[in-house]
Every structure is written in C-alpha cells, then in structure tokens.
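To: structure desk
From: M.T.
Subject: fold request, one chain
Message: Could you run this one when you get a chance? Sequence is below, nothing fancy, just the single chain.
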Amino acid sequence: MSDGAVESLDHVIVGVRDLDAASASYAALLGRDASWRGSHPGQGTENALFRLENTYIELLAPAGDGANGDALRGRLDAAGEGLVGLAFGTRDAAALAQRLRAAGIDAGAPVDGAGVERNGRERSWRTLTLPQGATRGVFVLAIEHVAGSLPLMVVDGDGAAAVDALDHVVVSSARAEATRRLYEEQLGLRLALDRSFPERGLRLLFFRVGGVTVEIAARLDEPPADVPDALWGLAFQVRDVAAAQRRLAGRGFDVSDVRRGQKRGTRVFTVRSGTGGVATLMIGPEDGDA
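Reply: Done. Structure tokens follow.
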C-alpha cells in the first residue's frame, strides 16, 4: 500500500497567452518537439507538454470558457507570462491527501482529470490542489497519473546541444524557515543543503526530489517579511554548454556569454528571450566543448 509520498517534481507550469507561439519558442529553446498538444474539456485551457528526462514543462494557455481558463486570464493580466505552478508526482493522491492533512495542510479530496490531444489520444490523472494559504502563495498541486504517457522527443540534430533535464527550479522566499517547514516537514522533500552565502547576500536551501532540485532563495540582508513566496526561474541541464549556446544564438535567442557556474565544475549561460517570461539558465559540465 502506498504511503502517499511525494516522489517527483512531475512538472512545472508556465502560463502563456498564445500557445502556438509559445510552443514554437519552447521547441527551439529545448531542442525538443512537444510530447503532447491538447485541451482540458470544460476547464477553458489548452496545453503543450515538453517531456524531459526527469520532468516535463507544461505550457498552459486560456482557451474558451471555464473556471481554470478565467483564473489563468486573470493571472496573465495581473502579472504577465511566467511560471505559475509546481506539480509534484505521487502514486497515490488519496493517501497523500491524508498524509498532508496529518501534517497540517487542509488538503481536499483528489479530483479526476482528463486531457484530449489533437489526434484523439487521451490521458487521465488525479490531482490534489493544495490551498495557497498553506503553500505560502505558490500554486502547488500533486498529480497521480492514471492512464497515458508522454514520449521523449528530440528535434535538433545535435543531441548534445539540446536540453536533457531540469536541473532546478528557484523559489524566492522572505521567510526561509516557514518555507523550509513546508517543503521538508509537510511535503516530505529531502533537504540536501542549507547554506548561507554572505558574499552573495543569500541563504539557499536545496530540496531534492526525483532527480530535480527545488531551490529556495532567501535574502540575508533583508528582515523576514509577510509576503508570499514566488516562483522565480528554471535551470536546465545540457551536455555541451558551448554547443547549446551556439545553437540558441543561431535560432535568434538573446543569450549571454558562457561563464563559470556557481557550482564547481560547471559552466552556464543565461537565456534572456523566448522563455515565456521565465528566468532561464542553461548549465552543463565544465569539460564540454570550448
């Protein structure tokens, strides 16, 4: 019997206005075609899913009438495109709901969901949406996949220049201890590192789940404040940083020069356009092609 554990960062959700344009941009950004392009009947949304080795990216756009579409339009009008949510994976959403209630999160019952792809392929799942008062303002849900799968697609010729996986997602917090309690004690993620960097004015907490890091960043030079946490950005893994930077520059993306990463043995570059409002970093080994 499942204990309702959180086993992965199943996907991250990026809210966009124009799904066609955003899908084309993300296919070029990731070097992979979409694994799924479909809609949510009755909910007022449509999506494109880009599977990576350890998670997938969901581009979500309003489409027609529905409560979810209306809520997403309101978010886009207020804050523009960007990261809108985290979805953690579980094998038993009902058991997870019970565990979260015992940990102090007022989780409701899982809700069955379904999606239909343009070619008629279907997928189904159960979701458990957590109250944002308990998740410090970040939209967080858990998902149990029931039927259907997502193929891993590659469209660019040089696989070493394509994105393989998500390295980490960054959440900014003005109350690091409260956020630590949420992810470690209530959601049950493993705290792999809790370290302060005075020279950068930051305290960073790294939570590992299913091969992805959830990084919590808190300012050391600012007092704790009663403001919501915020999703900030994504860092993707590539095998050859220089090749990835050349590929994206050649596709018209605004990219920085390659530089040494904060993590020893890595090189990185920033992508400053075509990301749907998401702060984006590419990271890879230092011994890649120069």
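Reply (cont.): The longest helix spans residues 67-79. Let me know if you need anything else for the meeting.
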